[in-house]
User: Fold this.
Amino acid sequence: MKQINQKHKDSLFRLLFGREDMKDNILSLYNALNNTSYSNPEDLEIRTLSDAVYIKMKNDVAFLIDSFLPLWEQQSTYNPNMPLRGLMYFSDLYNAYITEKELNIYGTKLISIPTPQYVVFYNGDVSKPPIMTLRLSDSFMNKRDDNNFEWTAIMYNLNKGQNDELLLKCKPLSDYMTLVNYVKYYKKEHTIKEATDKAVTRCINENILKDILLKNRAEVMNMVITEFNEEVFVKGIREEGREEGRKEGREEGRKEREALEAENQMLKKELEELKLSINKS
Assistant:
C-alpha cells in the first residue's frame, strides 16, 4: 500500500500567509474577510500548529487577533471532511492555549477562550459555489434534526468569477491566485516543472510577488511541484479505489452468476430425476 509522507511540507499559501515575516499579508486577508481595518501586524500572534496531527493533514495558518482565533486552510482538491479536520485542529490549539494561560477547565468558574473562525480557501478544478458552509453533522451516522452538535468550515472558492471582490480587497491573495492560475495554464502543454518555471518568470516580469519570487524562487518551485505531485497522487489513489471497487463488483457479480448457474443445474437435475421417476411408475 502506498504511503504519503507524513512530515509537513510548507505550501505556497503558507509561505505567503503563514510566517512571521508575512504578518502584513495575514492582516490584509483578515481585514478583507471580516471587513475590519486592523493596521498593526503586531496585533496578531501566529499560533499555527507545527506538526501534522493526523495523516498528512496540513494546518496552514492559525493566529490570535483581539479575542478571535482564526484558522485558515488552503485546498487544491475539494474535501468534505474539513469540518472534522478543523475540529481536531482546534482541539490542539485550544489545548495549547489553556495550558499556556494556566486555565482550569475543571473548576466551577467558566473560562474564556478566543472565538474560533475556520476558513477554507479552495482553488481546485471541480466546480463549487463561491461560498460553501461545510458541516460536521453531514458526517454523522445518525442524522439529527437539532444543531446541538455542530462544527462548520466556511469554504471560499478563489477561482475566477467566484470571489473576485475578496481578491480585489487583498492583493497578496490576488497575486497568489495569479501565480496558481499561470501554473495551471502552462501545465496544459508543459511538464509541471516547466509550467512552474514559466509561471514564476511571468509573475516576476509582471511585478507579481516579484520580491518573494526573486528571493525564494527555488523554494517556490519546489512547493508548487510538490503540491502538484501530491494532488496527482491523491487522484491516483482515488482512481485505484474506484478500480478496486469495480473489480470487487465484477468479482461479486461473477460469484452470483456462478451460484445462480449451480442452482439452475441442481434444479435441472432434480427435474430430470423426477421425470425418470414418473416414467418408471
Summary: The chain has seven helices and six strands.
